[in-house]
Every structure is written in C-alpha cells, then in structure tokens.
Amino acid sequence: MNGNSSKQSQATNPCSLKPAFGLTTNLIMGRTARQDKKTFKLLLIAPKGKKDSKSNQQPLFNMAIGVLVSITPPEYDIEIADEHFNDQINYDGEYDLVGITSRTIDASRAYEIADLFRQKGKRVILGGLHVSFNPDEAQAHANSIVCGEAENLWSTVLDDAAGNRLKPLYNSLDFPPVTKIAPLDYVRIAKASKRGKIDGTKSIPIYITRGCPFECSFCVTPNFTGKLYRTQDPEELKKQIETAKEVFFKKTRRASKPWFMLCDENLGINKKKLWEALELLKGCNINYSVFFSMNFLEDPETVKRLVDSGCLMVLVGFESIKQSSLEAYNKGHVNSAEKFKRVIDECRQAGLNIQGNFLINPDLDSFKDMDDLVQFVGRNNVFMPIFQIITPYPGTKMYQEYTKKGLITDYDWDKYNASNLVIHSASYEPVAFQHKFLSSYYKAYSWKNIVNRVRKNPYKFLNLITSLAFRKNIEEQLDTFERNHNIRK
Ligand code: B12
Ligand code: SF4
Questions:
Q1: Would you say 213 and 229 are in contact if contact means Cβ atoms under 8 Å apart?
Q2: Are 226 and 337 part of one and the same domain?
Q3: Do both 192 and 151 map to the same domain?
Q4: Alpha helices, DSSP H only, in 380-459?
Q5: Among 128, 149, 174, where does a domain finish?
Q6: Is the pTM of this model over 0.85?
Q7: Domain containing residue 374: CATH number
Q8: Which residues line ligand 2 (CB under 6 A)?
Q9: Whose CA is nearest to atom 8 of ligand 2?
C-alpha cells in the first residue's frame, strides 16, 4: 500500500493455479441466454469474518462488489448484501447466481455462506484475493471460482451462467490483461446496496489508480494487480466524484464536504503524475484520505498540495521505529525514527494528519521495543496509530517463504487480521506475545494519548471519533483475549 519499496516487481501472476482449460471466450450467445438475462437475479455478497475490524474506517461499500456492479450489463438485476453493514442475507431469495468476494480475513465466512446457498440448490461463484491464491480450497465450496481480476472475464461468466454452462474455474490469465480502470457506477451501487446518504464523517470509496510497481514481501499487490499500473481518465473520474456526492453525501453543520477514501494501492509513483492527480482532486471540493508513501512526505510542496486538495490524512507504512527492523524490511537505508518524527511534525504544521502503520515481528521486536513504540506514538501524538503483528497473507512472497520453511503455525483464516500470531516465534511464547501486543496497542489509545492527539493534531473532531472507535475495538479484543486465556488484569 505504501511500503515504499525500491525493487521492481518481476511478474504479475494473479492465480497460483495453472489454468485448467484454454481460452474461455464465449462470444456466441444463444437466444435463451439473452431472454434469461432479462430476469436474471444476481446477489453479490461481502462477507464479514468473525474477527474482521470494527473500526469506523470501513468505507460505504466493498470495492470488489462496487466494481462487479459497475461492470455488470444493465439488464441484470443486482442485490448487494454487505455483512459489514449488518445486511441480512436472504438464503431463500430467488437468485440465479450468488457471487461472494473474499479477503483472507473473511474467507471462512465466505465459505460458510456459500455452503448454505448450495444446500438450498443455488449456484455460487467465489472470487477475490483469498480465493485467487487458494483455488483448490475454494472450489470445494462453489460451483465456480474466479482467479484474478474480474473486469475482462465477468461478462463471459454471466453469459455462461445465463446459458447454464458455468465452468468450474475462470482464470484472468486466460483473458486479456486489465489495462483500464472500470469507472464506478455509484447510482447503480446505491440502488443495489440500498445504502443511504452519509455525512462527512464516513467515507465513500473511490480509486484513481490501481497497481504498484514495487515489491514488498508482506503485500499481495506484486502478485495481483502488480506491475499493471493504471490511472483513471481525469474527466471520467470527475464525473464519478460528482455522481458519488449527489448519490451518497448529505451536508451537515459539522462537515460541509464529503469524505472519500482513496483505495489506491500506491497513488504516488512519480511526482508529476501525483501532482496532476492532486490538482484534479483540488477542483472537486472534497475531503479525502489516502495510503501514501513516506518519501513524498519529505517534500513540503507535495504536502502543501495534499492539504490544498482536501487531504485530511495519509496512511503511511512506517513499519518500525527500530533501525535493525527497518533494515530487515529493506527500508533502513531510507528511513529512521528521527525522520518519522520530523515528517510527522512538519505535516502537522502544514495541516495534515499522518496515520502511522507499525509492524510488530516476534523475530525482530522485543517486549521492550513494543514499550518504545507506545512511547513514540505518545510523544509524537501520532494520529490513529495502527499496530499489526506481521502476517503472511496468501499471495505474498512472505507467505511462500514461511510455508516453505514450515513456519506458519495457524491456518485458521479468521485469525488473519494482523492481531494474531500465526507464525512460529523462536523468542516468545505465543499467548504472552499476543497479550503484550494487545496491551501495548491499547496503551497507544490511553486517555492521555487521545487527549493530546486531539489537542495537537488538525481536524480535532476526526481525531476524537476515530480514537474512540479504535480504543473501543482494541479494548474488546484485549478483554476477549484475557477471558479466553484466563489472564487476570
Ligand atoms: C483499500 C484497502 C482497504 C480498505 C477497504 C476498502 C473497501 N471498502 O474495499 C480498508 C482500509 C478498510 C482495508 C482494511 C483492511 N485491509 Co486492506 N486493502 C486495501 C487495498 C489497498 C485496495 C483494496 C481494493 O479496493 N481493491 C479493489 C478491488 C476492486 O479489488 P479486489 O478486491 O481484488 O477485487 C477484484 C478481484 O479480486 C475480483 N473479485 C473480487 N471479489 C470477487 C467476487 C466475485 C464473485 C468475482 C467474480 C470476482 C471478484 O474482481 C475485482 C475486480 O477486478 C488492498 C491492496 C490490494 N492489492 O488489493 C489492501 C488489502 C486488500 N488489505 C489487506 C488487509 C490485510 C486488510 C485488513 C485485514 C487490515 C487490518 N489488519 O485490519 C483490513 C480488513 C478489512 C476488510 N474486511 O477488508 C490485504 C489483504 C490480504 C488478503 N490476502 O486478504 C491487502 C491485499 C493489502 C496487503 N497487505 O497485501 N483495506
Ligand atoms: S502497494 Fe504493496 S508493494 Fe506497493 S509499495 Fe505498498 S506495500 Fe509495497
């Protein structure tokens, strides 16, 4: 997302499974298929894993579902059920096809839903990041699975479903590469999701670019969208933003502008393109947040342009404040805790919040290092800090390496939320390590830290509500963990 790696990705391989069949073109459509499409009912589901995040960072809809809705031909009738918004799933609905997306954290729930629909005789298609890298596992739960990006294969899938000839696997490698970004159809998404208007404290997702040319070992992107870095057509993007405002935004006294969450994997890969994008956003009169690379934040002109274009906060992958850990992540030559301090402070002066993302690695970081990190975020009033235990997500280079060495200790996908230790640790007993992690994370949201954060940072209300939501979420996780492991406070 913002790993800021300098190595170029060599390969884009969205599916670890070799194609089970040749080119899946289905250009000839029978008459029956055309007629069927008129009444074809599609249900698209975003499942919510048992340990999925409860933070208020959750944008208004899941991007995979948003894209699928937008690329579905207009004659199909679509309904969305998103469990992150407590939408109820109607297992008895008259659906012709049920499509379910998956991230690793939601995969077990996706399979549970798929199994229930299949028991009711409904056809189920599974897709998304997790399924793309675990096709064998997923195939047991679906009539059909999709590996890789859907943009260039979805119409074939729908034709095949309408013509009753759905194949067990559709692999994006069998279709032309996705070189363009599909514009989001906000009107149709609103209709299918029945999501109402929101104020400026909740975010509307959008993206300007997709892909990233770098190769961080803990990130899925190099093996998924990878090198195919694409940018939206500026006019098309402006239109989408205007429509999204009309459809989803309601002005309030506290927030006169809508908040967009830029879901780009890496918005800034070079300064010229980045400045062009910021210029465009400036003309849209919105607020937004974005994943961002540390190196651009050292440039005061870029920071100024971010602020002028409505950027409220950037999420930066600091990864660690310990130099030897930064070196292990291949970032030691460019980053240091001193530099982080300076950049956080300069951005704050310029009116920009920096949300810091920190990785905790049992092989690199000690309990004392966790204490140092808590002190660092407190002293520097880091806005909405995120602590994550290093997690080898399927699809990453790290996952391949850990699997090869036999270092993954837990394949319960529900635990892949970066708050659980799922890898072997040579130095720590897992329960003690995780308890120390959760209590440190909770301390980063102590009342004292929250008060200082709100006082010192720009956008005080945003700082307050996000801090309270994070505190509550982490407190619940810590309480549950202590209860489950009989740990007394
Ligand atoms: C934006 C973003 C977020 C946003 C979510 C925005 C949203 N509403 O969707 C926020 C900040 C909330 C977020 C949170 C988290 N994220 Co995140 N996030 C991203 C990011 C940068 C972009 C995701 C995106 O918008 N993609 C655009 C959509 C269109 O792509 P897509 O989902 O892959 O869908 C395409 C295909 O997969 C396919 N497809 C998908 N589903 C289906 C279904 C069917 C039926 C079909 C046919 C096709 C299909 O078609 C789509 C179009 O081509 C990715 C990076 C990445 N490479 O994806 C990380 C990423 C998805 N996140 C990741 C993680 C780990 C998390 C968290 C767990 C972090 C945490 N500890 O809390 C949480 C989980 C919350 C959750 N349930 O998603 C990992 C997931 C790894 C994995 N194997 O699952 C990624 C890949 C980053 C990484 N480390 O590599 N994230
Ligand atoms: S998107 Fe992934 S590969 Fe690209 S810089 Fe961010 S973390 Fe690294």
A1: yes
A2: yes
A3: no
A4: 397-404, 430-443, 447-456
A5: 174
A6: yes
A7: 3.80.30.20
A8: 1-5, 212, 214-216, 219, 221-222, 265-266
A9: 3
